[in-house]
Design goal:
The complex is a heterodimer of chains A (404) and B (263).
Chain A (H helix, E strand, L loop, with lengths): L14 E2 L2 E5 L2 H17 L3 H14 L6 E3 L1 H7 L3 E6 L9 H14 L4 E6 L3 H13 L2 E7 H6 L1 H9 L3 E5 L6 H14 L4 E3 L10 H9 L1 H14 L5 E6 L3 H7 L9 E9 L10 H4 L1 E5 L1 E6 L24 H9 L2 E7 H15 L5 H13 L8 E6 L7 H7 L7
Parallel strand pairs in A: 4-14, 5-6, 5-8, 6-7, 9-10, 9-14, 10-13
Antiparallel strand pairs in A: 1-2, 2-12, 3-4, 11-12
Helix pairs in contact in A: 2-4, 4-5, 4-9, 5-7, 9-11, 10-11, 14-15
Chain B lengths: L2 H5 L5 E7 L5 H14 L4 E4 L10 H13 L5 H12 L6 E4 L2 H7 L1 H11 L1 E5 L12 H6 L3 E3 L1 E2 L7 H7 L4 E4 L15 H11 L4 E4 L5 H10 L2 E4 L1 H10 L3 H17 L5
Parallel strand pairs in B: 1-2, 1-9, 2-3, 3-4, 4-5, 6-7, 7-8
Helix pairs in contact in B: 2-4, 2-12, 5-6, 8-9, 10-12, 11-12
The chains are: A alpha/beta (404), B alpha/beta (263).
The structure holds pyridoxal-5'-phosphate (PLP).
Pyridoxal-5'-phosphate binds next to helix 5, strand 9, helix 11 and helix 15 of chain A.
Function (chain B): The alpha subunit is responsible for the aldol cleavage of indoleglycerol phosphate to indole and glyceraldehyde 3-phosphate.
EC number (chain B): 4.2.1.20
Catalytic activity (chain B): (1S,2R)-1-C-(indol-3-yl)glycerol 3-phosphate + L-serine = D-glyceraldehyde 3-phosphate + L-tryptophan + H2O
Chain lengths: 404, 263
């Protein structure tokens, strides 16, 4: 079995070039400071690391498979395609890696209440799961639009013992849920830990989330080495806030031969207003505690975003991605709704895998690029989650009426 | 001494807040002028932001109204409002907004324009002490005060924040977001005392104050009282009659605040 010895990053400044920082109300600064110090301490604490390791292995079902997608490879006729199967984790997505880490930190900090934001509900479900496991109180903030269209996940969170708050301010989606969670936190910092769902927000979140998700690339590097003795030529992952992507990239950033590609949600098209392609369409700004790239207007008002995938429906991107984009170390490409839905059907039919619509943005890019690569080249594509949650909405997209 | 600090010199200060472009350009001008006529010592003009995380439902709603009226609401339109206000009153003014608005306009251009129009201070709730470095030297060059916030949970941070402050220090009355309250943190006197140990920069308490009694109580503790949501509510409720109402309200509040002896 793959030995898990999480390498946690040394960056303690919270800056990635000019990006990152802690642009957050004063009320939260002491708490963030406590969190940063606690994290700096525990990430080097052998006992904490053992606990984290055991939870990842025994509870989350790690390591996840690195699966050689032979049919896809043959069909596309180019590079060899390996899929990193985060969809096989407990709760069905990479989100569990992060919530285990943060909840464990919360427990060690003496917190008894977890709060979280969620878009489609995946992070909310993961948080509710770990809260149930640790016997902690859990409240999840979710835009009213999302609670309406993701009723199953709302019920799932409630089943796990969490309280779900529909957020009715602003555009009633993910960014408004983050606003509401931050506001709740300012009212009650003493016993509460805000469990951020992506590699976004003020320091130390982008760093912590990256560290907890970097298990993805730590495993994939080792697994691919065992299978082929090589490094991949390209790593592809979808980017919402950027947590599965930064985890997929982390252990390859210092390997210059490995191309890193983030697949963003282009919605109806990168050049349209109905898009969530932050890196391609956005610009530098300051929001949700970080300096990074955002979809915004000239004045600096944050724009509403659109994607078929609720998990990629965020008007920003984590600060390390902004930095990787700016320095050219990683490349970000927009994938439209249509392309993602095609990929959803393609991977189901060729490999027998129903992958999350978010992950299918990465798959769609692989479909485009693999045929252009040599047969001795290797792509590792992260399947961030499983697609059961998406089946009904894809059916609807295709005009098929199914009873829920 | 900065123009804002001077406001507090001879008496306790009453500082109302309204959101720009709520309900529209001329309404904003009329409302600020009315606040000045009512005796406000300094007016905070909020620049609407799509996602005002430090604000409660009342001010959020004002921002939404303002942006609905003009979704782009260019910063230059707001500067034009101030220019219009300046034709009618010389009252000290400060902006309250989120850092992205200032960042997009450009720190240099923004603060320069502020000085030209007599905006003497900026309150930026999402720019804590640690992040003020990118704006502070530029603001100082243009004599624009960066007014920091201190909260009941600032703890060991109080001294460094206070020492760097110019203009005044915004003391947050209690945890949470802006909006009317019936109770405040009970250690506000200690908080103000800690600030006064390290600086002469005046203090004003805000978040939740809406009655004259509360304003009087807060002005006893600090050098001034800030009232936001209550003013915004008047604007929302009275529409074109808002200026008269704001002027009356300010008179009352000012009387309650000024009654307290200065330090
Ligand atoms: C399956 C899946 N993949 C990807 C994402 C996007 O998040 P991130 O970019 O942080 O990995 C989500 C978010 O909900 C998700 O559920």
């Amino acid at each position: 079995m793959t030995e898990l010895n999480l390498k946690l990053s040394k960056n303690t400044t919270g800056r990635y070039g000019e990006y990152g920082g802690q642009y957050i109300p004063e009320t939260l600064m002491n708490e963030l400071d406590r969190m940063t110090k606690a994290y700096e301490h525990y990430k080097n604490d052998p006992e904490f690391k053992t606990e984290l390791h055991d939870l990842l292995v025994d509870y989350a079902n790690r390591p996840s498979l690195l699966y050689y997608a032979e049919r896809m490879t043959k069909d596309l006729g180019g590079a060899q395609i390996y899929l990193k199967r985060e969809d096989l984790n407990h709760t069905g997505a990479h989100k569990i890696n992060n919530v285990i880490g943060q909840a464990l930190l919360a427990k060690h900090m003496g917190k008894t209440r977890l709060i979280a934001e969620t878009g489609a509900g995946q992070h909310g479900v993961a948080t509710a799961t770990i809260a149930a496991y640790f016997g902690m109180e859990c409240e999840v903030f979710m835009g009213k639009k999302d609670t309406d269209r993701q009723r199953l996940n709302v019920y799932r969170m409630e089943l796990l013992g969490a309280k779900v708050h529909p957020v009715t301010s602003g555009s009633m989606v993910l960014k408004d849920a983050i606003n509401a969670a931050l506001q709740d936190w300012t009212k009650r910092v003493d016993d509460t830990f805000y469990l951020m769902g992506s590699a976004t927000g003020p320091h130390p979140y982008p760093l912590m989330v990256r560290d907890f998700q970097s298990v993805i690339s730590q495993e994939s590097k080792q697994q691919l080495q065992e299978k082929t003795g090589k490094l991949p030529d390209m790593v592809v992952a979808c980017v919402g806030g950027g947590s599965n992507a930064i985890g997929s990239f982390a252990n390859y950033i210092n390997e210059p031969s490995v191309q890193l590609v983030g697949a963003e949600a282009a919605g109806k098209g990168v050049e349209t207003e109905l898009t969530a392609a932050t890196v391609e369409r956005g610009s530098d700004g300051i929001f949700h505690g970080m300096k990074s790239m955002f979809l915004q207007n000239k004045t600096g008002q944050i724009k509403p975003v659109y994607s078929i995938s609720a998990g990629l429906d965020y008007p920003g991107v984590g600060p390390e991605h902004a930095y990787l984009a700016k320095t050219g170390r990683a490349k970000y490409v927009g994938i439209t709704d249509d392309e993602a839905v095609d990929a959803f059907e393609y991977i189901a039919k060729t490999e027998g895998i129903v992958a999350a619509i978010e992950s299918c943005h990465a798959v769609a890019y692989v479909q485009k690029i693999a045929p252009k690569m040599r047969k001795d080249q290797i792509i590792v594509c992260t399947l961030s989650g499983r697609g059961d949650k998406d089946v009904a909405s894809i059916a609807k997209y295709r005009g098929v009426d199914i009873d829920e | 001494m900065s123009k804002i600090a001077e406001v507090f010199k001879n008496h306790k200060a009453f500082i109302p807040f309204i959101a720009a472009n709520d309900p529209d350009f001329q309404g904003t001008v009329n409302n600020v002028v009315a606040l000045a006529k009512g005796g406000a010592d300094l007016v905070e003009i909020g620049i609407p932001f799509s996602d005002p995380v430090a604000d409660g439902p009342v001010i959020q709603a004002a921002d939404i109204r303002a942006l609905k009226a003009d979704p782009d609401l260019p910063m230059d339109t707001i500067f034009d409002m101030v220019a219009e206000i300046r034709k009618q009153t010389a009252i000290p003014l400060a902006f309250l907004t989120y850092l992205n608005i200032v960042f997009q306009y450009g720190y240099e251009a923004f603060t320069k324009r502020c000085t030209e129009l007599g905006i003497d201070g900026l309150v930026i709730p999402d720019m804590p002490y640690e992040e003020r470095g990118e704006l502070a030297p530029i603001a100082a060059k243009h004599d624009v005060d960066l007014i920091p916030l201190v909260t009941p949970v600032s703890g060991d941070r109080i001294e460094k924040i206070a020492k760097a402050a110019t203009g005044f220090i915004y003391v947050v009355s209690s945890l949470g977001v802006t909006g009317e309250r019936s109770e405040f943190a009970n250690d506000l006197s200690d908080l103000v005392a800690r600030i006064r140990k390290v600086t002469d920069v005046p203090t004003a308490i805000g978040f939740g104050i809406h009655t004259a009694e509360q304003a009087a109580e807060m002005a006893q503790i600090a050098d001034g009282a800030i009232v936001g949501s209550a003013c915004v509510n008047i604007v929302a409720e009275y529409g074109e009659q808002a200026p008269t109402k704001l002027q009356d309200y300010t008179k009352q509040m000012k009387a309650a605040v000024v009654g307290n002896p200065v330090r």
